[in-house]
Design goal:
This protein is α+β, with helices and mostly antiparallel strands and 350 residues long. The protein contains 7 helices and 20 strands. The chain has a 6-stranded mixed beta sheet. One of its GO terms (molecular function) is glutaminyl-peptide cyclotransferase activity.
Amino acid sequence: MKRKKRSEVGRQRPNRERSEEEEEEEEEKRQMPRRRTLPQHHRRIPMPPANLSISTPAAAPLPPLYRRCRPLIAALAALLLLLIVLVAAGLPYAPWRATSAPAVLLGRPAVPSTPPATKFYSFDLIREYPHDPYAFTQGLLYAGNDTLFESTGLYHRSSVRKVDLTTGKVLVQHEMEGRMFGEGLTLLNDKLFQVVWLKNEGFIYDRHNFSKRESFTHKMRDGWGLATDGKVLFGSDGTSKLYQLDPKSIQVMKTVTVKYQDKEVPFLNELEYINGEVWANVWQTDCIARVSHEDGLVVGWIFLHELRTTHTSLEQFQRSVRKGFNVHAYRMDRWIQVNINIQHARKNRR
């Protein structure tokens, strides 16, 4: 028996008349949006009530590494700067050594300038003269007629001598006792005044006859440098103090503290009095401070470090002396005459 087609079977189903109510319900269903029933594992998680307004933001991408580390880098830089400032404030004169550039002396922030303003000088090399390579010069002054008065140091080697400038020949010499270490020397009224290292003693010589001499004591802590303005003696003892001494009694008349930018300048060594100022070499540096003896303020600096580049033997000699006074290893065998030049200094500092 052949099966009838589905269409025919459908046609054979009895037609049932639908009521008006059923037709209205069916029309409403057709107008309503269709909903698709999802499988259990695809159904959405129930959302929280609307009044909570909870939303899950999308995860933002991480910024680059250098941006994330920027706050840490800034903090480390600030800490490093603070450490540098603290070290600089706590060690004001530690960099002042012969191997340091003279600019280290000026590495502090400039204070508001008060007249007279500090000036800086360099030099021009004029000429050179021969010199006894075994003379450890501590005091030196021009005696006129191309001659020099010189005080030399080292134990068992110290002396006071008169030297021919052009030839370096020793014309007159007085050998000091072996326990004495000769230091600063100056000339006042035909008398040579000399101090010695690590003692409160000194000597006065007749400039024409070194055998005529007398001794004296002073109140400085030590004997380093001497100079005079023709009326009083100026002395240094290796500190920041500049003394004024009565040439007759050798009593201290006045003491000032040498300062630059409100900081003390220690290790004042050999002294010279020039045009109303006391020029002081700062020991273990290549600098000369121009000092006002009225108040101790430094009014200028002279930088001589360039001498090392043209005269290596000077540096070698100084190094050998610091290691143990081995003056035989290297010799300082010449005098150097220089011209102080402020224009040259300004040009080099631009």
